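Nucleotide-binding universal stress UspA family protein, pasting as requested.
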Amino acid sequence: MVFTRIVVGWDGTPNSEAALRWALAQAGDASIALVHVIPGADESSEYLRATGDLSAARVDLMERADAVRAEHPGRTITTSTVHGRPEKELGGRLDHDTLVIVGTSAHGRETAWTLGARLAGRRGKGCVAVIPPDWDASPRSTVVVGVDGSIESKAAIRVGAEHAARTGQELALVHAWVVPTSWNSAYVEYLGDVEMMEQMRRDVLDDALEYARSYGAEPSGRLERGGPAPVLAELSERASVVVVGSHATGGMARFLLGSVSHDLLLTAAGPVIVVSDIE
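Structure tokens follow.
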């Protein structure tokens, strides 16, 4: 899977600056579209024509795009300024070959349903990257993919393997698991149950490694004891990016975003890519 187009959600804040810097740091020749979505009514409303809000925002965006072109000659940069709901306007640009990138606010935010979480929870094909505001371009050499044996994690493996190959980084597949709290059997039986479960979890990891190799990757594997979201969040402090699948269920269930992906977006210290099925 190769992204030929990158869409960056822009609003002039440090969060969107972090998203833009991460987009520019990615290897490849994908075009970059800066999209400023101004929450509110359509630009045809009398109020917006009177205040000129859209025009002022468009000028600011075009000036930022000109600066990017000067700093990165040869990169294709386009701009768009629209009114509407950010998750709808940016989500409408998701496609199998398009990566939508947004920034996120600092930890301790007032809501769990950030723009990144809402975008990542939309049904359909495509990938969403969420970048923390304090992201820096210091060299990091590992792409981490969270795997759990699901179809969604296979899609994440494909994206992670392509990203690692394109950037020349290592690929690490991580499967985290916990012992069910309901287990309360005798000590000897308990140890046997845990050992059996660990082997089953190792089989899941081995299958994921084999799947990654089928795409030409040379991954390493890590079996970790602990909740998937906390384990991946800790690894995000040293990884160049963490890639996970979105367990979209349809309807309003979990707002279309699995608990691991959602919790990771709220706690990760580094960039996270959430992948919907891209086949």
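Note for the archive: The longest helix spans residues 187-213.
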